[in-house]
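Late entry, evening session. Most of the bench is empty. Finally got around to the prediction I had been postponing all week. Sequence below, unchanged from the version circulated by S.P.
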Amino acid sequence: MAVVALAAGCAGGTPAPAHPSASTASTGAGTASTVPPVFAASLMPAKPGRGLGDRLALLSSRTGDLLRWLTAQPEKATDGALSVRDGWVYFVSYPIDPSSPSGSPSPAIWRVRVTGGQAQLVQAGASDYAVSQDGRAVAYVISADHGNVVEIVARNLVTGRRNTIIMATKPSPEANNWPPGVFGLTWAPDDVHLAVQFQLTAAINSVLVFDAFTATTIRDARTAPTPCTVAYSYQCDGYDPAYLASGALTYVIQRLNRSGAHSASLVAWQAGHPTTVLSFPGWASQIYDMTARGQAIWVDNPGQLKGPWTIWRWSSGAPVKITALPPLGASLYYEVGAIAW
């Protein structure tokens, strides 16, 4: 496996947890032969002090082998994979120096070719970024008014039209849940509808859908349905939205009951009708990505403390295990911070 080669170690560990089962419903998913050949992942150093943050790498979707590092080990920052498109890997670089005073450098969106080379700045001051399926529109998340407002900016690159959606304003200087998370931006094929994951707190997540060029505040959003049973009424959240080329909106619904049992499923909504695409028994990971052609990739957390992280892919039929990251101590890197196809 990729990271093993870095440390000349061996991938050991326990068997992977039970893998998800696939439904037979049609959602416009691709086939095994159309699976993207590579994916980007943000890998975390196993020991503190090695640059602090995650480092961006390109891996094989077939074997999980490390093909190349795309960024140098960031100093007092972390690089998070966002998407892979048209031969580029888009990522966000976040400053993480806890000693920095107020007004320290803000996050920025960069891109680097899958073949490697110098990274290019795409959007300063942004924490998430999405390009529409036809490349004609972009959207990104910024903090405005000295960090007291979180906004989504949508731009049509052809017409020049621009719109700003206010997602949140800081309620008070003492607020302890600021800022909320706004990420997972994804465009519908119509270049109009935009979906996003809104994380009010670590335990409250929802998928919201906007008209990107008429919405002005979060109140204009439609909330994607999250069907829950009484058994899972303790917590039921939506994560990781992704529009398919067919126009269906997919996202993960994760449930937690009061006894601590997890379950998650991938659903697709189109014309008001839901379809369960995958089921993830006991799955508690939030590291996941989906292409417009309906190919999913995700990471399972270790089944035991310091155990290996397992990476899966799916396009149709049964999910395929790509690889298992070595357990803690077997490599210079351990844990996946973000993953993107």
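Two things to note before I forget:
The helical segments are 2-7.
Residues 144 and 150 are 6 Å apart (CA to CA).
Will write this up properly tomorrow.
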